[in-house]
Amino acid sequence: MSNPLKNNPELKCVKAKDYCLSVRDGTHDSPKPVDIGFPLVTSKHLKSGQIEINTCYQVSEVDYYEIVKRSKVDQWDVLISMIGTIGEVALVKNEPHFAIKNVGLFKSRNEAGGKWLYYYLRTDFAQNYLREISRGTTQQYVPLGSLREMPVYVFDDKSEMSRIAHILGTLDDKIENNRKTAKTLEAMAQAIFQSWFVDFDPVRAKMAGESKESICKRLKLTPEILDLFPDRLVDSELGEIPEGWEVGNLGNIAKNVRRTISPSSIGQNTVYIALEHMPRQSVALHEWDIADSVESNKFYFRKGEILFGKLRPYFHKVGITPTAGICSTDILVIIPKSTEWLGFSLCHLSSKELVAYADSGSTGTRMPRTNWNELAKYMVVIPSEQLARKLNEIIQTQIEQIISITHVNRSIKTLRDALLPKLISGEIRVSDAQWMLEEVLL
């Protein structure tokens, strides 16, 4: 691929070690994990511009300070994956409290410099360079010395760089805010599920003699929904449960569908979701690929169905499909046996309790897997169909909002990825891109 940056007289090329205060890497040791400590970020925790802190293991305070002597991360520094998956980049937007291992660290001089480098490293020009300098056969890596010599193209006019970074950053901020909204919707759904079907708050409130008006106000229920809850708890093999409800299994209300599809039957533009596309602890599936290079049988899914990652279930990869497509056979496609049980099934399948159950029953040492037969045995308290239907009406609205956010974010990403190389190369000027930004933010 030709590099148009070389032909732009407004741009000059400097080495990364000169552009930055320094270029370093994290520890190469493997400090012992602890229950309470500081997160250790590795290459695998950099994904799609994000630092997945919640999936890191913790290291002790002693190990943390030993690591930061070598490679302290500060706000507006840029991180890059150097081992395994090469070239994942993240900008440290907030004051960090983590250490790094096998991660490249570009020490930024200031906020504007960090933002420019972050976007520059995501261009095809920079990514091609990283592929060229990578080494290794079984596992690829980028030598630190080559990273320091990496060419970085900059405008003589620093204000132009700031304006470009602002446009791209505004698009990224919109994506991030949309994701936070989706996360809030998911948390609201889980809170309702927990209150109704785990803690039995409406039942306990009735038993305590609280007035209907007070219960509805406090628990944000309509009188119609409150009337669907009984007014006493009874003993069961799962402990006390609402009177009239039953103890059953997940398999009573949901099923695994195996719609196998061969590569020859897969359309060229079919959506493909693999385990690496599924985020941890989030039902919103923002990432997917196109099935143009699939070479083995996959499972077909429809929009609004549940995907459950059965390989290493402790990764907690459970999501609701935003469109029809195909998925890896390491993913279970699960649907309710009747539509009113979708919300109930999704909340159970995405709960920490069920994921822990799946993990404890998984088989295989190096690559543990669960299966539907095991998940179907998971014991649940089954309410009335009317109450399940009311929950589903609420959850379905939130699912539709999450799916809408997903597609909006895909459109914003498409615009950002189209603008990124053109703005940085100078092919498109900031003034020409401004109207596109205004349309997105309406």
Ordered list of secondary-structure elements with their pairings:
Elements: E1 11-15, H1 16-19, E2 22-25, E3 33-34, E4 38-41, E5 46-47, E6 50-51, E7 58-59, H2 61-71, E8 78-81, E9 89-91, E10 99-100, E11 103-107, H3 111-121, H4 124-133, H5 144-148, E12 151-155, H6 158-197, H7 201-207, H8 212-219, H9 223-226, E13 233-234, E14 241-242, E15 246-249, E16 254-256, E17 260-261, E18 271-273, E19 289-290, E20 298-301, E21 306-309, E22 318-320, E23 325-327, E24 331-336, H10 342-349, H11 352-360, H12 372-376, E25 379-382, H13 385-425, H14 430-440
Parallel strand pairs: 4-10, 18-23
Antiparallel strand pairs: 1-12, 2-11, 3-7, 4-7, 5-6, 8-9, 8-11, 13-14, 15-25, 16-24, 17-20, 18-19, 20-23, 21-22, 21-24
Overall average pLDDT: 93
List the uncertain runs.
none
Q: Please describe the biggest sheet, giving its number of strands, its sense, and whether it closes into a barrel.
A: 5 strands, mixed
Number of DSSP helices?
Answer: 14
Strand order of the largest sheet: 17-20-23-18-19
Strand percentage: 15-25%
Please tally the β strands and state the result.
Answer: 25
Radius of gyration: 25 Å
Distance between the termini: 36 Å
Find the structural class using helix and strand composition.
alpha+beta
Identify the overall geometry: elongated
Classify the helix fraction into a percent range: 25-40%
